[in-house]
Amino acid sequence: MKIRTIAIATLSAAALVTGWQSFSGTVQAQAQKPANDFAAVPGEIGGQDIFGPYDVVKTWPKDLGTLPGNEKWTSGAGQSVFAESPDRIYVLFRGELPVIKRPETQLLSSLGASIQFPVGRLPYRDATVSSPPGAGGTGGEPADGMKLWKGTLGVDAKWEHCINVIDGKGNIIESWTQYDSILKRPHFVAINPYDPEKHVWIVDDHSHVVYKMTNDGKRIVQTLGTRDVKGADGTHFNRPTYLAWLPDSTLFVADGYNGTRVAKFDKDGKFLLDWGQRGTVPNEKRPGFMNNVHGIATDPETRRVFVNDRGNNRVQVFDEFGKYLYEWHFGNDPSDIHLLYIGADRNVWAHDRGTSKMLKYDLQGRLLYSWGTWGDFAGGFWGVHGMSVDQQGNLYVAEVDNGRVQKFTPRKGANPAYLMSRPVYSAWK
Asked: CA-CA distances (angstroms) from residue 340 to 48, 404, 406?
């Protein structure tokens, strides 16, 4: 027994020496290896990689309060953003909110002796709830919006400056106020990247319509859907949300908050077909059954359509005729994927409102990278509802909860694989 103990001890000592040599070599090798696998900037060590491969532009854009006679007002919920170029960015806001000072921290004795408000960095105002017509999520009827909103127009909010154009320096160069009176809840703005005339498309989910406007905003040249009449056919939507195009200008409409389908139109706006049925949240698994179609993107090479089935935390992939191909799941609560983006590199970017993360997937749904953090400080996210990339690689996000739009520039030396790819703009340089 004693001899056995000695033998084991000897063996252990030898292993210790050998292991230490191996361990020491490993440590040395790791110390010399650049952090290429997870750092946004290859080889960078230390710090907090909160903003991924980007730097936030803290002074962009200028606030709506800089407009003459608008000094006491700021932007409402930031609904959507689209970069036509680095010097022409379209932004949608749900009106304006009064400028208020952040309240001093105070005890809320009615709730408990130790409860304070505001707490830390917690935002003191939820812009999407404060902005008309309120939160307005899945299942809500547009007619109820202003009834449920708890504010008073002219005091608690203004329905003005809903569509704005901003230049690269953050100046508000145009405000299409001529359309304020017809908009009920502007949800999405974009330009068909294959349209040489650069028409501007606006989705208004509470009016059940999609507007096509001239690039200068002077005329509405086409309206898809029937204003204030809901339905599910070639001339009616039920709270549509997002749009996507193919290279021949075929258009797909995500329809939507209360609709459960994708509608397809040709380049002239002629209805072709639709697909999708109402599913059962939150764990619907049947192909083609959807709840809250709240994001859509297309792959120009395969002509496949990627549909964000938000209510079931999944992406369903179809061919352009609505044939189900495959899907992937984002995970259970708090996952809340809001939108999809496919750029020139043919990867899928999504934003998770539940975790405030930008997520990169390949076309098969394999997670490749993520970044982002919650907060109301410059560079933080709260309720990203729109995102766009310009030809220089600058990233723009619109936030409904923070009530703002932000601009991010690629960090010097950033790993290109971690940047959102530049868009497919085949119709113009």
From this structure: 26, 20, 18
Contact 221, 212 (CB under 8 A): yes
Q: Is the pLDDT of residue 200 over 90?
A: yes
Tell whether the model's pLDDT for residue 24 goes beyond 80. no
**Residues 383 and 398: beta-carbon distance below 8 Å:** no
CA distance 131 to 283: 31
Residue pLDDT, tens place only, 182-194:
999 999 999 999 9
The pLDDT tens digits for 349-397 are 999 999 999 999 999 999 999 999 999 999 999 999 999 999 999 999 9
Residue 292 · residue 333 · CB < 8 Å: no
| 357-361 and 348-352 beta bridge pairing | antiparallel
- Cα 68 to Cα 79: distance, rounded to the nearest angstrom: 23
Quick one: 22 exposed, middle or buried, by C-beta within 10 A (0-12, 13-18, 19+)?
Answer: exposed
CA distance 277 to 31: 55
- Exposure string over 259-292, b if 16+ CB within 10 A, otherwise e: bbbbbbbeeeeeeeebbbeebeeeebeeebbbbb
Q: Write the DSSP symbol of residue 111.
A: T
For the cut 80, the answer to whether the pLDDT of residue 197 exceeds it is yes
Q: Give residue 429's pLDDT.
A: 56
Name the phi and psi angles at 31, rounded to 5: -65, -30
Beta-strand relationship, 289-290 and 277-278? parallel
Cα distance between residue 94 and residue 387, in whole Å: 16
Pair of tokens at residue 310: 């938000």
- Given the structure tokens 């509405």, which residue do they identify? 220
Q: How far lies 250's CA from each of 193, 220, 253, 425, in Å?
A: 11, 19, 10, 15
* Residues in Cβ contact with 152 at an 8 Å cutoff, skipping those fewer than 6 apart: none
CATH number for the domain formed by residue range(s) 54-418: 2.120.10.30
pTM of the model: 0.90
Q: Which range among 48-62, 184-198, 399-413 shows the weakest confidence by mean pLDDT?
A: 48-62
Distance between CA 216 and CA 197 in Å, rounded?
Answer: 10
Nearest CA among 390, 424, 385 for reference residue 402: 385
370 pairs with which residues across the strands? 359
CA dihedral 82, 88, 90, 96 (to 10 degrees): 140
